[in-house]
Amino acid sequence: MSPFFFGSGADMSLLEISDVSIQFGGLRALSDFNFTVDRGELVGLIGPNGAGKTTAFNIVTGVYTPTAGMIRFDGKNIAGHSPVAVNHAGIARTFQNIRLFQNLSVLDNVAVGFHTSAEHGFLGTLLRSPRYFRCEHLARSGAMELLEIFGLTEQASALAGSLPYGHQRRLEIARALATRPKVLMLDEPAAGMNPQEKIDLMELIHSVRDRFQVGIWLIEHDMKLVMSICQRITVLDHGETIAVGTPRQVQDNEKVIEAYLGKAEV
Amino acid sequence: MQSDSSPPIRATWLWFVHNLPVPIIVIAAVLIGRALEFSDRPGPYVMHVAMIAAINVILAVSLQLINGVSGQFSLGHAGFMAVGAYLGGYATYTFGPWNYDPNADYPDPRQLFANPGGALACFVALAIVAAIGFGFVTLLFLLIRSLRRIFPALPLIVIALLVVWVVIDARGAANSPNIPPTCVWSRGAMGLVNLYSSILVHTQSAALGLSGILPYSWRKPATLLVAIFGGGAAAAAAGLVVGIPTLRLRGDYLAIATLGFAEIIRNVIVTIPALGAATGLSINVYWTKPSPPDHIYEAFYISPWIFGTAALTFVLVSRLAHSPLGNAIKTVRDDEIAASAMGIDPTRHRVIAFVTGAFLAGVAGALYVHLDGYLNTNSFSFMRSIEIVVMVTLGGMESLAGAAIAAVALTAIPELLDNAERFLPAALAAQAHWMSDNRFVIYAFLLLVIMITRAKLKSAFPRRKPQTIGRLR
Lengths: 266, 473
Hints:
- The complex is a heterodimer of chains A (266) and B (473).
- Chain A is α/β, with parallel strands linked by helices and 266 residues long.
- In chain A, the strands form 2 sheets. A 6-stranded mixed β-sheet of chain A has the order 6-7-8-3-9-10, sandwiched between helices.
- In chain A, 41% of the residues lie in helices and 22% in strands.
- Chain B is mostly helical and 473 residues long.
- In chain B, 71% of the residues lie in helices and 1% in strands.
- The longest helix of chain B is centred in the N-terminal third of the chain and has 31 residues, at 116-146.
- Chain B starts with 7 loop residues before the first helix and ends in a 13-residue tail after the last helix.
- At the A-B interface, helix 2, helix 3, helix 4 and helix 5 of A face helix 1, helix 10, helix 11 and helix 12 of B.
């Protein structure tokens, strides 16, 4: 059964995390974590504060190297690869505390994701070669298209740092999509939004998934929201996986209620 | 939504239009330089100050690329300038002359700087020797680093022992007339030096042949071109060697590392007799001014080179800053973690900015030596670096035009103050002289004021609308 020996990768999920653990000194931040994301899937990872959700994201995107375990993406092991390599493989992410390029315009924030500078090179930039203009035009029109989907066209030339909070959150998702990922990881995309903004965002996430056929993996604090849009949910507490299943299964799980919902209801 | 791919003819047309300023700049620089350099109207003093100002523009703009655009803090710009100046000057001084007779009392000015092939051979030989030397050191380093698999502290111990060995080796070699065979490190270094000189000996006739292909009137410009590009390339190589290990450092630490590097360069130059050691390198720049009594040779105009290079530097660096590549560099400055999550390699982009800046500093140095004709390590001290940093800071972070204007102002103002008695009453002129003499006190004060009032200055001079990546349609 082991895909390591037999599988060509055809029957495997796009992103497959198996038995990943990480230890920081004496602290085991994540232990035996298993997760899969498939193309076009919308899956969630929840848990109380300090449960290890963002740590899981950081391991997959190459910020941390796991102490043990395997991360396969498209059939290749990407555990311990650099963040740059992970992104080139086809995984893009957003951050819990927004990390935009504050001093670049909204359009440039998205356009840098197209990596056009790699195509026309350093001399092409200095000499403004015809190829440079072609690449730049493609990046620019691609970025404008993304901004249109996310309703940011009017702010295209504003500085990213000057946008209102909700727009910054959306810009971060647009920017991640510019690298044309196969899996999009959203770290608390609705944090700090009001209920109406949250509903709009969830609709947007749905439409992004349908339009780009990406697998979306999101971390969210708001239980109601996750329950309403995710197909599968994994619940973490103190680095341990305490429940896996559909929203309904997870909702009824006693451990989850104890660790998470119980506290919330007090 | 516009169509996704523009027709190719449009991109070609844009290329043509965008590059039109380049020949215009070159022609304008030649015309202005030829009209002004030896004329009486602005006079040699004003022209000299203008050329120094143009060199400072190159330095300030290239430092702005490192400090402002890529967000690193380098204090070693004078070091890169020194590399370009000394190697550019050394190549043209030692290998530039055509059929140079070392026993003649006075070198024939017509032969000076007439051998571009010789200067080129010098740089090629230097590059070969440097590649062998650094290749060896890199291999050794990688080998030592792999020892940490055996025991984590082993590399450090081995490096410490190696340093002790090299020092003992060098002392042993210095104390005896012939290097004893036990001193393997010194022998190796001597081998590299011998390799360098034998490459030069064996390529000399080929170099002269190469120079001979060129028409006579092209030889001096070609020699200068070789010196400028060679000096720049040497500085860029130095930037790469310094940059790769130090660019992992942040903020203050990088500043200290680059400052240390600049001081190392200065102290190494002092020990090399071929570069004039502590006395300084003095090269014949007869060719820059025809000496009045005999006029036995034609004038060579240096100012078009300096003005043209300064203008081209400005154009090219602003192209770099306002391009997708420049934006990628800025993303690393703004947020390194987000940049790498977006697939932008932080180290690569930092190195691109740093090495480009070092190259341009080397170019400025090579121009400077051919303007002044005399080099001393004191010209490339810490204070010189600070002066460039002040220009960049005064110009405003990330503003290339600001840096260029500040460079011109900070070159012109001390000169004006020095000559204050021409347009000010004597009492005020004395104050002006005092200000010029103590300008570093004023610079320090200026830096303090700028840092404290930075936020207010920012709101007083709001940034223009951010540039989007290009002006297609």
